[in-house]
Every structure is written in C-alpha cells, then in structure tokens.
Write a structure and sequence with these properties.
- It is built from one helix and eight strands.
- With about 90 residues, the protein is mostly beta strands.
- The strands form four sheets. Strands 1-2 form a two-stranded antiparallel sheet. The chain has a two-stranded antiparallel ribbon with strand order 3-4. A two-stranded antiparallel ribbon has the order 5-8.
- A hairpin with a 5-residue loop joins strand 3 and strand 4.
- It is elongated.
Length: about 90
C-alpha cells in the first residue's frame, strides 16, 4: 500500500510492503527523469530482516522450485511455526 499527499510545495509519502513511489520530471527535449521517493519494505532486505528477527520472527529466503518458479521471501512467526502459514498475525 502506498499513499502520497501533496501540500503546497511538499510531497509526503508513506508506504508498506512491496511498493514504491516514483516522481517523474520532464526534462528538456522530451526526456523524463525518475526519482524514487520511497523504498520497498521487502522482508529480505538486511535492515528489515534484522528488525523482524529481533522481534522473534523468521524470514524464509526466496527459493526456486524444481520447475524454475521463484517463490519470494516470506515472514513467519518463527522457524518452528512455519506450518501455520506466512505472516505475523
């Protein structure tokens, strides 16, 4: 989820999860410049994984199955409770 709020000359951005806000700016000669305004909250980013693990959670790394399909990293309450399914609730 992502929300952007423009107030006067300020942009306020809030995001959670695998999403990103990008600001496009017109340059000369029809060129466009893109500037990231936020960072994805992916559970396998080192800072996010450290935060989750400090709270007792477990991050299963992304894996590729035998058919070549990539399964993204997932968060679990703990490594011992993976059978309960992903998520912290």
């Amino acid at each position: 989820a992502l929300c952007c709020f423009l107030h006067e000359r300020n942009i306020y951005v809030a995001n959670a999860g695998d999403c990103r806000a990008v600001l496009g700016t017109n340059l000369s000669m029809g060129e466009v410049s893109a500037m990231a305004l936020s960072t994805d909250h992916k559970c396998d980013m080192p800072s996010e994984q450290a935060r989750i693990e400090a709270c007792g959670g477990y991050v299963r790394p992304a894996i590729e199955d035998e058919d070549g399909e990539v399964m993204p990293a997932r968060v679990y309450k703990s490594k011992e409770r993976m059978a309960e399914g992903p998520g912290l609730c």
